[in-house]
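COMPLEX REQUEST
Ligand: 2-hydroxyethylsulfonic acid
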Amino acid sequence: MTKTALITGATAGFGDAIARRFAHEGWKVIVTGRRQERLDALVEALGGPEVAHPLCFDIRDEAATRAALDSLPEGFAQIDALINNAGLARGTAPAQDCDLDDWRAMIDTNITGLAVMTRLTLDRLIARRGLIVNLASIAANWPYPGGNVYGGTKAFVQQFSLGLRSDLSGTGVRVTSIEPGLSESEFTLVRTGGDKAAYDKLYAGADPLQPEDIAESIYWVAALPAHVNINSIEIMPVSQSWAPFQIHRD
Ligand code: 8X3
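STATUS: Structure written out below.
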């Protein structure tokens, strides 16, 4: 039987690549995001309404999320995999210089939106002995200057994933936390407020991860036998590694 994956934040970057990968492998995909035109173009590129179904809403809005899920047509009503990809970073400033609206946007999307979407699809996922893949980040594992609330939201995603595994014991539902490092996508343009020069500087000579690399790892997780759970995957480009701790001296 054809399986169905719901991919949040599918209008760019990782989400777009994940949707393309799953559709390429014969899955039906529900693609969500805030930009209807991009969703429509993606549905077209994926093979049309038999293969892909768009849901246009803001994941920070619980009522809109409920209404979107309730609107799913019969052919897309069963969900075998939830890929919680929607998320963002805003800014790289130290905490003492940050804008509270930026912090709220990250908390509302990366934590609240992800938790609500998960809760609202859990019954369907349990019915299908399905899979949840949550997009965390290396920022969940490694603090860095300017990571503050972004890293905190991703630590939530990682720990929420592990907690879900405990609660879903016996249901057959698998849960995986994916923790990417330096990756080239629209994510960085959002983080820098559209600063293309900063975007180019970040990636210059670094050969960063590409969205297709993340899609590859998530599809691998999904395609494993039903008795195999990958708890977490931390992925970096070869160019990225750790530097020593900083020491401030007076
Ligand atoms: C984004 C990756 O390296 O900027 O989650 O924290 S990094």
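REMARKS: Residues 196 and 207 are 17 Å apart (CA to CA). The chain has one domain: 4-235.
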